Amino acid sequence: MRANAGARWNESFPRTPSYRQVTPPQPVTINLDQALARDNPPLRTVNPLRVTAGGLRLTGYCPGQLHAWLRLNTGVWLGLCTFVAHSGNHRAALDFRQWLPSSAIAPNASGGRHRHAVARPE
Question: Which parts of the chain are beta strand (E)?
Answer without folding.
Answer: 19-31, 61-71, 77-86, 93-101, 105-107
